[in-house]
């Protein structure tokens, strides 16, 4: 199994011990409104998700994001192969947002996709009101490729999702910036 270390985080396989952390993070409306996850997010939802994702495979990677030195899971991210392209999402517990952890996770996830999974591009998206995710995606090189109607369970309404794509080339251009390069250079992909 491969796992990823960034300066302050470890991205590793989920375990059932992480259930309370996932419920705490995704149970928050401010987080959930940006995602397609059940709301309210229950212990049963978390057990079902983690049980399905206990072991990663080339088609489906799900990483718990652990804050180094604490054992606490502060987020999650995934990469799923569908129709020949990697898709997936990212979330952080609201308490831990705005501290640069999201940038570490976005870069770690993309590095893993391009260097380990040998993807040429990855597909993402964000709900049209999610300016923070928009900013993050632009920063690491994502480009807008379309839009579609999705449904937010937390908002209980249809929302417009802006569809985005990150090519390997755009990603490596983005990480040439001094700020991102410093974060990127500390990311290690390891095996246990
Ligand atoms: C999106 C998310 C992963 C970002 O993680 P984070 O740790 O908060 O992000 P960081 O602290 O690394 O960076 C935040 C950046 O967004 C900027 N930002 C914050 N709020 C913003 C807003 N409302 N509009 C535009 N930019 C914003 C910050 O200034 C910072 O920019 P900088 O790196 O250029 O200085 C996290 O906020 C999250 O999980 N949100 C809820 C779930 C979600 O939206 N997931 C993504 C679904 S597409």
Bound compounds, please? coenzyme A
Residue runs with pLDDT of under 50 for 5 or more positions? none
Which secondary-structure class do the elements indicate? alpha+beta
- What is the CATH homologous superfamily assignment? Gcn5-related N-acetyltransferase (GNAT)
CATH class: Alpha Beta
> In percent, how much strand structure appears in the residues?
25-35%
Q: What is the alpha-carbon Rg in Å?
A: 16 Å
How would you sum up the major sheet? Answer: 7 strands, antiparallel
Give the count of helical stretches.
Answer: 7
The share of residues in helices is 25-40%
Short description:
This protein is α+β, with helices and mostly antiparallel strands and 192 residues long.
Structure explained in plain terms:
This protein has helices spanning 19-26, 29-32, 43-52, 101-115, 131-139, 168-174, 178-184; strands spanning 2-5, 9-12, 60-67, 73-82, 85-87, 90-92, 121-127, 143-152, 157-167, 188-191. The radius of gyration is 16 Å and the shape is globular. Strands 1, 2, 3, 4, 5, 6 and 10 form a seven-stranded antiparallel beta sheet that branches. A three-stranded antiparallel beta sheet has the order 7-9-8. It has a single domain (2-119, 175-191), classed as Gcn5-related N-acetyltransferase (GNAT) (Aminopeptidase, 3-Layer(aba) Sandwich). The mean pLDDT is 96. It contains seven helices and ten strands. The longest helix has 15 residues, at 101-115. The protein is α+β, with helices and mostly antiparallel strands. Coenzyme A is lined by residues 31, 34-35, 89-92, 97-103, 126, 130-133, 135-136, 139.
């Amino acid at each position: 199994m491969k796992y990823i270390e960034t300066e302050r985080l470890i991205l590793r396989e989920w375990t059932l011990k992480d259930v309370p952390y996932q419920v705490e993070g995704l149970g928050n409306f401010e987080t959930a409104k940006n995602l397609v996850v059940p709301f309210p997010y229950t212990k049963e939802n978390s057990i079902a998700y983690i049980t399905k994702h206990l072991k990663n495979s080339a088609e489906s990677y799900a990483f718990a994001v652990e804050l180094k030195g604490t054992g606490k899971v502060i987020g999650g991210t995934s990469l799923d192969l569908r129709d020949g392209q990697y898709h997936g999402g990212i979330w952080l517990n609201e308490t831990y947002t705005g501290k640069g952890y999201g940038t570490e996770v976005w870069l770690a996830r993309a590095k893993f996709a391009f260097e380990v999974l040998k993807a040429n591009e990855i597909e993402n998206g964000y709900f049209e009101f999610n300016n923070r995710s928009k900013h993050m995606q632009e920063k690491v090189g994502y480009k807008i490729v379309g839009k579609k109607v999705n449904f937010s369970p937390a908002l209980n309404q249809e929302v417009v999702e802006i569809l985005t794509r990150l090519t390997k080339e755009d990603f490596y251009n983005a990480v040439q910036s001094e700020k991102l390069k410093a974060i990127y250079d500390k990311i290690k992909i390891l095996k246990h």
